[in-house]
TrEMBL record, chain A:
Source organism of this protein record: Falsiroseomonas oleicola
Protein known as: DNA ligase (ATP)
Ranges that cross the membrane: none
An MF annotation (GO) of this entry: DNA ligase (ATP) activity
Enzyme Commission identifier(s): 6.5.1.1
The keyword Flavoprotein belongs to this UniProt entry's keyword annotation: no
Length: 537, 352
């Protein structure tokens, strides 16, 4: 019965907005499903299940033979999703009492069945399932399963369920393959801890705390080292004799999108660094704004043209393993010396070292931080010189000291209800700025959306204000009277062809409600344009 | 034998029986009306004379107030023939909600059955649909697409009970229409063994009381309590709470313990519909016939001609044509607006 059970899990995960509820659903799955199905389900959710997928066109042909074309067209038009339409319209066949297939059975048969026999096989399964089961099956066999369960979430659920630390699960994870029999045996205390030696496995990252004013006193050049905080994505490079892998901060493998980095990993080490678009200019290397890097993210494959247009590199800042030697217990200074020696020896292509910025007092850095307007710098990192490399967020060891955010006073234009716990609140806000309307007056143009930054009290207030000042409704969206000014802060402004205003904001959030400010005094679009990175005067 | 088209007309107010000089489920106030059931898209206020089942008349009085449910009201006992201007009128059960009827009309040897809204699944809160052979069968097509095949209600209740076990710290808030859906849901929960009190939003209390008055046992029901203090939450963890659809979007809901938002409706079959409403647990539970039941019913009544009042008449008329049956879309206005249609916006902002 495991495919119907999997279908139920999928359905609930699809509709459940809350992280805790998702964890509860996953824990239940691990606790109640037998091997190997629970491991196959896990791999399917995290995108680690690899098998020969069927083409959506085949499913379409199957349903075409079983439904009237006019009725199918009307249905597809209404439902909007091919797999769901097929799952719903698939006619039950009288007299079918075959049991529904198991997950493992489906995955195995997809690999083993000759191509010509696949349609009959899939049709037989569809006959034996109900609508939910059919939808899960179609999404599974066509490789279209997307439920928003990250590997990180799945591992957290595994750790919760087994009473283990997530870091422990992370350590062993990447050496394993579906259906993870070793992993489950270990978590249920029925087997030894799976070994990860010599394989390119992800090691849990050391994370930083935001630096706040009360912490300033404890920081000086005697105890801490400073580096720029680059606005790229954190990556771990793992190269072992048995293979190479590039992992994101969330432990997802992203090797496929960056073949040139994999090619350059011609060594045996585990390194920590920042993935950036780096362009050579006259004097050296210039780091491009995050928007450039974005062009390269979330791609399974990348063309030669993309590689040339957005040359990718890694700025290294730590070394976890040199060969098979684990350096994580060494203090930062010692690891840095090992990193520099390793770099001098290895000279890897497409990589450089993160600069250590000399300082004695924090006040010197404060000036440097305030003056740093380069597009790709987010602020500074401060690392304790004597700290080992520890998994997770270790209070006091690593600090991130972000550049002060940018801000504008914008006008609330539209509001939308939130999800989950916020579904009774108008909590997503579209805000706008003034610009000339071409007829001598001014008009508001939307520049962004924010759904965080406010306190619970502020949300209550603003929710009531929206309900009392609604001028029009479009489904879940309300247009409001243009009379409330919000102070919006954000990390950067970038040019964007996709937005009506021509500007996109990084991490916009609400800093304050400016009920004191008349709407005429909200900012102009031109004020925001002056803040666009790389264009400031 | 006169063709039904000669004595039953489609007017802006709805279906009009010419020799009988009355309307069936008229959309506006008329001198004489027959009302199939109490949903607001069928039962309108302020008719001069209303003929309906006793339960439907009681529902109309509860919802519209004593003075607006028809100046004179006439109870038509189920199954009994009433002669009026040469037309024989008979009400037979439609299986939709308490008191819901089909209207069977005979005139000069020709018979029309106007089914109102109907379903074919067993429902402990109302009498089952009774097929009557006829010359023209007038049907709804709310779920008139082959993607709508309602699952077994018992399975949907099992999903709800499973969720209650998995999330004992959360209230389960189910959006359900005040007439029919709410009571059926309660009755199904009772059949499945849920004997704890079920908590009701104020908008559902009156009709649940009316059902009980008609002998439909609903078990212990309680109003949702007021929050401890203004804005406080945390109430009714592990309990079932029923409210009209849309209540989850109002401030009222904030008193409940981290509610799992559920909705009980046939529309929940399509994921986009559930997503758009922010539903966490969709329960596919409908008081209308699904696609298979629409086709089975039109076959069962053996009518050579089927008229479709509202819903997906395009698909149903096409499917009937494939079976050699003549289908005709009536395009009646204002139908499908209460029952089952998802509320676009909160309906219960003010009521507690
Ligand atoms: Zn109805
Ligand atoms: Zn209706």
């Amino acid at each position: 019965m495991s495919l119907p059970a999997f279908a139920t899990l999928l359905e609930r995960l699809t509709f459940t907005p809350g992280r805790n509820a998702k964890l509860a659903l996953l824990r239940e799955w691990f606790a109640t499903q037998p091997d190997p199905d629970r491991g196959i389900g896990l791999a399917a959710l995290t995108g680690e299940l690899v098998f020969r997928a069927a083409k959506p066109g085949m499913v379409r042909e199957l349903v075409a033979a079983r439904s009237d074309p006019v009725l199918f067209a009307l249905s597809y038009d209404y439902v909007g999703d091919l797999a769901e339409t097929v799952a719903l319209i698939w006619p039950a066949r009288a007299g079918i009492n075959a049991p529904p297939p198991g997950l493992a059975e489906v995955v195995e048969a997809m690999e083993a069945t000759p191509k010509a026999e696949l349609p009959a096989l899939i049709a037989g399964w569809l006959d034996a399932l109900d609508a939910n089961g059919r939808l899960a099956l179609i999404k599974l066999v066509t490789g279209g399963l997307r439920v928003g369960v990250s590997a990180r979430l799945a591992k957290t659920a595994l750790a919760d369920w087994a009473g283990q630390e997530v870091a422990e699960v992370e350590e062993v994870w990447h050496g394993l393959a579906p259906p993870y029999l070793d992993l489950f045996a270990w978590l249920e205390k029925q087997g030894p801890r799976p070994s990860a030696e010599d394989r390119p496995v992800f090691r849990p990252l050391m994370l930083a705390h935001p630096l706040e004013a009360p912490d300033y006193a404890g920081i000086s050049g005697a105890t801490h080292r400073a580096e720029w905080k680059w606005d790229g994505i954190r990556v771990q490079l793992c190269a072992a004799p048995s293979g190479r892998a590039l992992f994101s901060r969330g432990a997802e493998e992203i090797s496929g999108g960056f073949p040139e980095i994999l090619e350059a990993m011609d060594f045996h080490a585990v390194l920590d660094g920042e993935l950036l678009v780096m362009r050579a200019n006259g004097e050296g290397i210039e780091v491009a704004p995050f928007a450039d890097l974005q062009q390269r993210l979330n791609r399974k494959l990348v063309s030669a043209k993309m590689q040339a247009a957005y040359p990718i590199g890694v700025r290294l800042y730590d070394i976890l393993f040199d060969g098979a030697e684990d350096l994580r217990a060494l203090p930062f200074d010692a690891r840095r010396a090992r990193l520099e020696a390793w770099f001098a020896r290895t000279r890897p292509a497409r990589m450089d070292l993160s600069e250590v910025i000399p300082f004695t007092e924090l006040t010197e850095l404060e000036l440097l931080r305030a003056g740093a307007r380069a597009a790709a710098i987010e602020g500074l990192m401060l690392k304790r010189a004597d700290s080992p490399y520890l998994a997770g967020r270790q209070k006091g060891a690593w600090w991130k000291w972000k550049r002060a955010p940018l801000g504008i006073d914008a006008v609330l234009m539209y509001a939308q209800r939130g999800h989950g716990k916020r579904s009774s609140f108008y909590s997503d806000f579209t805000f706008g700025l003034w610009r000339p309307d071409g007829e001598g007056g001014r008009e508001l143009v939307p520049v962004g959306k924010a759904y965080s930054g406010y306190t619970d009290q502020e949300l209550l207030w603003i929710d009531r204000w929206i309900r009392n000042n609604t001028t029009a409704r479009f489904g879940p969206v309300r247009e409001v009277a243009k009379s409330l000014v919000l102070e919006v802060i954000f990390d950067a402004a970038q040019r964007s062809g996709r937005h009506k205003s021509g500007v996109a904001l990084r991490f916009p959030r609400i800093a304050r409600l400016r009920t004191d400010k008349p709407v005429e005094e909200a900012d102009e679009l031109a004020t925001l344009e002056a803040l666009i990175v790389g264009e400031e005067a | 034998m006169p063709h039904p088209q000669t004595w039953m007309r489609v007017t802006p107010q709805g279906l009009y029986c010419v020799p009988g000089d009355f309307f069936i489920d008229p959309a506006r106030a008329v001198p004489r009306a027959i009302v199939t059931h109490g949903h607001a898209d069928h039962a309108r206020p302020d008719h001069d004379h209303v003929l309906a089942s006793d339960a439907t008349l009681a529902i109309m009085r509860t919802r519209m107030g004593e003075g607006r449910a028809g100046r004179t009201q006439q109870v038509a006992p189920m199954g009994e023939v009433i002669h009026h201007n040469g037309v024989d009128i008979r009400l037979v059960p439609a299986g939709h909600v308490l008191g819901s009827c089909q209207v069977v009309l005979d005139w000069q040897g020709s018979r029309i059955v106007i089914s109102g809204d109907y379903k074919r699944r067993p429902d402990p809160t109302c009498l089952p649909f009774e097929p009557v052979t006829c010359d023209v069968f007038v049907t709804e097509a709310t779920f008139g697409l082959p993607v709508f095949r309602h699952p077994d209600p018992a399975d949907e209740i099992a999903r709800l009970l499973h969720s209650l076990r998995l999330f004992p710290d959360r209230a389960h808030l189910i959006g359900a229409y005040a007439l029919g859906k709410a009571q059926r849901l309660i009755a199904l929960l009772r059949q499945a063994g849920w004997d704890r009190p079920i908590f009701l939003h104020g908008a559902l209390l009156a009709l649940c009381g009316l059902y009980e008055g008609f002998g439909v046992k609903l078990g212990p029901l309680e109003p949702v309590p007021l929050p401890q203090k203004r804005g406080a939450g945390g109430l009714l963890a592990g309990e079932v709470v029923l409210a009209p659809p849309g209540a989850e979007a109002t401030a009222w809901v904030r008193r409940l313990a981290d509610p799992v938002i559920c909705a009980a409706s046939g529309w929940m079959r399509v994921r986009q519909r559930a997503k758009a409403r922010g539903v966490e647990l969709p329960l596919i539970l409908s008081d209308h016939a699904d696609w298979d039941e629409l086709l089975a019913t039109t076959a069962e009544v053996q009518a050579p001609e089927i008229w479709v009042t509202h819903g997906r008449d395009d698909a149903l008329v096409h499917a009937l044509a494939l079976r050699g049956i003549k289908g005709r879309a009536l395009y009646l206005l204002g139908r499908g607006e209460e029952d089952e249609e998802p509320a676009a916006e909160p309906v219960a902002e003010a009521s507690a």
